[in-house]
Amino acid sequence: MSTDSIEGQADRLLLPSYARDDSSHPALDTPEYRSTSLRHPSEPLQRLPQNLTEVTGPVLGHERVSETDHDLTIQHEGEPLGERIVVSGRVLDSDGKPVPDTLVEAWQANAAGRYRHAGDRHPAPLDPNFSGVGRCMTDEHGRYRFVTIKPGAYPWRNHDNAWRPAHIHFSLFGRAFTQRLITQMYFPGDPLFHQDPIFNSVRDPKARERMICEFDLDSTIPEWALSYHFDIVLRGSRATPFENEEDDDDD
Amino acid sequence: MTTEHGGPATTPSQTVGPFFALPGGLPWPDGPEVVGPDTEDAFLLRGRLLDGAGEPVPDGLVEMWQADEHGRFAHPDDPRGSSTSARGFGRCATGSDGEFWFRTVRPGALPTPEGEWEAPHIDVTVLARGLLDRVVTRIYFPDEEEANAADPVLSTVDQQRRGTLIAGVEDGAFRFDIRLQGTGETVFFAV
């Protein structure tokens, strides 16, 4: 967001103001997800004004991303096993404006539901051709695109016979400290949703839907890969009348 | 679903989970080094991330964001104009004992829109398995008594808990432990 007139700049600092969106997010204290019990603050959060440190954020450039980082299927000698998919969409803010040139990081389990991580003891095979890490920058329209394989579901020990629905982790910076977001993208119609305390930690069913990608036949690559569309929405900065044009409202 | 502005509603947060530290993943090799080792006046900032039982959190990710030593940001929304090429950002995965570290410089004081001055500080994001959303805190410096006393954020924090936001000094480095819950719980902010 641009700063409008800065008369008397030295003594009058005009900063963008990012909309609060507490109702979108899960409570830190969510007893069904057992690991929250000793890790959630028991004191209420104190409100922090949005001053210079909060309305700025790291400008992480293209030097963090190589040509092949967005394609998790070509990072090794051979191809990973699994169902090849394209995951693409836009990073927007809640004013409907695209967030260009921002780093998107993603990570996931392999097709068998196993992470390449020493702490993952699920007895499913590792895939020598899959690391499960991707990154890319959004383009000038806020668009991003990953090529990967569909991750598998996997068991965990939260409750009796607990399984995580298939998901891909996303990490986003936006352009301000206030916009930092870590989330998980789920797949449509997953039969494991009802028993997953992490997915259901988001209490509003409409908000939960915003974590589920859409199957997108139009952008499948015929005879090669299926495709899913997933838009990610970060907090918007309060639009000034000037910027509130009707050009980029959607969804 | 749309917001009051007619734009789309935000995507919910989810936990970073236990497996973000995949090879080549979130813990960047240069993550903790906000400045290089030869930078003038660079110091180490060390701490531990602890849970409500006082046990280390060995699968957390701590991130920090700050101004440069002159109180400037290389960012278009700093209306004073950019005067720095400093990265200002650090990221460190916690170790088996919950420990994390950064190498950085002391940020400058910052003006606020209300005409006050914020004491030198570092904004911190904590992510971990068991944290469904990030938690945010601030690090202030122990030898800035005057600036800290005038800081518009610190002064709103209950005096009994204010100390949780002020780093200590230990072995020539600053020390800032983060207690997620319970005795000595760190003050966390909603931004």
UniProtKB/TrEMBL annotation, chain A:
Cross-referenced Pfam families: Dioxygenase_C, PCDO_beta_N
The keyword Oxidoreductase is annotated on this UniProt entry: yes
NCBIfam families on file: protocat_beta
Superkingdom in the source lineage: Bacteria
Residues in Intradiol ring-cleavage dioxygenases domain copies: 56-236
Organism: Actinopolyspora biskrensis
Keywords: Dioxygenase, Oxidoreductase
GO molecular function: ferric iron binding; protocatechuate 3,4-dioxygenase activity
EC number(s) per entry: 1.13.11.3
Stated name of the protein: Protocatechuate 3,4-dioxygenase beta subunit
Uppermost EC category: oxidoreductase
Region (Disordered): 1-44
Family: Belongs to the intradiol ring-cleavage dioxygenase family.
Domain Protocatechuate 3,4-dioxygenase beta subunit N-terminal residues, every copy: 18-50
Record GO biological process: 3,4-dihydroxybenzoate catabolic process
PANTHER family: DIOXYGENASE, PUTATIVE (AFU_ORTHOLOGUE AFUA_2G02910)-RELATED, INTRADIOL RING-CLEAVAGE DIOXYGENASES DOMAIN-CONTAINING PROTEIN
UniProtKB/TrEMBL annotation, chain B:
Gene Ontology MF terms: ferric iron binding; protocatechuate 3,4-dioxygenase activity
UniProt cross-references to InterPro entries, sorted A to Z: Intradiol_dOase_C, Intradiol_dOase_core, Intradiol_RC_Dioxygenase, Protocat_dOase_a
Intradiol ring-cleavage dioxygenases domain ranges (all copies): 45-73
SUPFAM superfamilies: Aromatic compound dioxygenase (SSF49482)
Enzyme Commission designation: 1.13.11.3
The organism's place on the tree of life at top rank: Bacteria
Enzymatic class: oxidoreductase
Keyword set includes Oxidoreductase: yes
Family: Belongs to the intradiol ring-cleavage dioxygenase family.
Protein name per UniProt: Protocatechuate 3,4-dioxygenase alpha subunit
Organism from which the protein derives: Actinopolyspora biskrensis
